[in-house]
Amino acid sequence: MVQLGTFRGVIADGHDTPALREDLSGLLERMAPHESTSAFARNHTQAVELSCGKVVVKRFGRPTNARRSFDAAVRLSTAGVGTPQPIASLESGPEGAATEGYLVTRHVEASSLHEELLELFWGNPRYRQILDLLDVVAAAVRAMHDAGVVHGDLGNQNILVRRTEDESGVPSWSDVSFLDLERSRLRDSVADKERGFDLSRLMLPSRLRRMFQQMYYRERCDAGQPPPAELARWERRYRRRFTWHGRTRWVRHPFRSLRHRRHKRGQRRYPKPREYWIWDDHRAEAAGVLLKGDKLWHGAWLSAIGMSLVTAIAIVPVWIAWKLRRRRMYRSPVPMKGRFGVAIEPFPGTEDRLLTLLGNLGPVPVLVRFHFHEGEERRALAAALARRLHETGHSVSINVVQNRRAVTDAAAWSAYCEKVLAETAEFVDLVEIGHAVNRVKWGTWTLSDVARLARPFRKLRKKYKGLRLVGPAVNDFEYHWILAAAARLPFGLRWHALSLHLHVDRAGAPEGVQRTGVLKFSGPDKFVLARVLAGLARRCGPRVVVTEVNWPLGEEGGRSHEFAPFVWAADTHLDTTAPEDQVADYLVRYYLHALCGGMIERVYWWKLIGQSFGLVDDKLGDRWQPRPSYRAFRTLVRMIGTATFQERLPSPPHVYFFGFDNGVTVGFTTGEEWTGDLPVTPRAVYDRDGNRLGDFRLNGRPCYLVERE
């Protein structure tokens, strides 16, 4: 303890110099009276120039808080954990009855986690950037706890990060520092209860909170173990207590709460639960940031009740029609021309390579996605590419994809749709309105939101005669949305066909059976049900178009379908991926069941280029690598792309032979090898990729039996 004029206190090792002692003795003269960086802070903070450089002086009403902050900062600095470098802890007043305390630390040029998250959430939010930021912070928080420091007030505003950007403007973060350590506690070892207490103060959406815990316990997740249940339990308990404390603050401190609310008026805050919308470049889709419980809590119960009523009324006629139509599957001739489609998402500088890849497939239908959140430059790029595709002989359809702002800002959404159709309406085949409207991560929470997306097309349909609209772009096997969405379609609009994103089983075969409640449905069963609903839906043509299907691919590097771009072994039970070679088999079988059954008009594979599920892999940058599924798709189109399906030839239940009028029969099993007699006598047999075979055995890999060459 040293005496410095009216102060007494301690100076950190390495800083005790005569010049600094003189500066600290006259510290009050250097500080502007009652000036603070925070108008409503209990403690006052100021930046001051001393002989050792620019420092921050924090004045405490309780002197013990200054010393506690100093001791915690020294502990962190010694352990190599980021915190503003402590210089001195001072107190004034009679010895043993000090009235004020002062903490002097080195000034740090950085922004808070709170400010960085606001910038990311309200700017152009990218999932990878948000997770990169959280990963850096989680490692620092873990290091702080391992150093034996419990922060006690680990809010987003008390965590500083240094932001840098590369030449292309992509941000990265480093040098995490912890502020406001006056509530900290020093421990020899921090228990999971206290770790959970600190983590409960972080303000993050629920899914990001869970991922933050995985990042915090990275080594456990890498070893296949989840974060400790004790930590998660205490984190939930303290978070509920902290949330209740915040919501009842106005009862305890009404006037202070009113002043605080006025001060915060006009300032940016975190989005409300329904307003989060974040783009995941790796998956090329919106990223969910809420767990199931939060989605249900913030969901629209009125829409849920409406969907339940519509489904209850229709369940008997749907069931009867499904049973009758199921018997007609594979019984009628179906021309295959124009039914094998693929979807694309254009990027600058890739147009020529896209056209080359599509040219190798033949004049297949192409679906081009227009993303509202990508802005005008990408819209113009997509429109120009769509026109080039049309000029090269492809049937072009478009999908106008929303984000949350498209739902809440009707004028901006309407203007965007008008610009898209002004450039494409003269040659476009189908226009899909919206995308995955039954997934809240895409910005649609209610049936009213779905209706808002369709509203601008009432005027556009009158302007562009013959415009063929499809919807509602429901994702997966959730048919209760279809009839309800059709009932809420704005007056004057009609769907030419139902559009679905029909993933039958993301990790299994198309013929595999999935349970939905007490019912079991295979892929062909779902195709029949979709066709039945198209016939029963109000203001809809009796046709079905599958505008998205794929099987996510297993990948290295800690990536998965569920948690891209980060996942650890503890979450592998949630991973729903399949090997590349097997996906190619499933692709052929899916197209055959969907189209030859006569239930689906057209199928688009999403997408042509993509790391996680594309026909072509682009993870090596400019070195695009066609996958087995690309070769399988090309062979499928070449073999039967212009033929007419005739019948499914007699065979055991687990064996399929699809006969076509050009003398080609496609055969496969549901996985088991079959050695029975073939229903045709082929002159040549080709495998899934178009290679001629000698001896062969029929199994889950489709093959082509050619009767005439």
Topology:
Blueprint: E1 2-4, E2 7-11, H1 18-25, H2 27-30, E3 44-50, E4 53-60, H3 63-79, E5 86-92, E6 100-106, E7 111-112, H4 113-122, H5 127-146, E8 149-150, E9 159-165, E10 171-178, E11 185-186, H6 192-199, H7 206-216, H8 218-222, H9 229-247, H10 249-252, H11 254-264, E12 278-280, E13 285-287, H12 292-297, H13 301-326, E14 334-335, E15 340-344, H14 351-361, E16 366-371, H15 375-391, E17 396-401, H16 404-408, H17 410-424, E18 431-433, H18 447-454, H19 456-463, E19 469-475, H20 480-487, E20 497-501, E21 514-516, E22 519-521, H21 523-536, E23 544-546, H22 580-596, E24 602-606, E25 616-617, E26 625-626, H23 628-640, E27 644-648, E28 655-660, E29 664-669, E30 684-686, E31 692-693, E32 703-706
Parallel strand pairs: 15-16, 15-24, 16-17, 17-18, 18-19, 19-20, 20-23, 23-24
Antiparallel strand pairs: 1-2, 2-5, 3-4, 4-6, 5-6, 7-9, 8-11, 9-10, 12-13, 14-27, 21-22, 25-26, 27-28, 28-29, 29-32, 30-31, 30-32
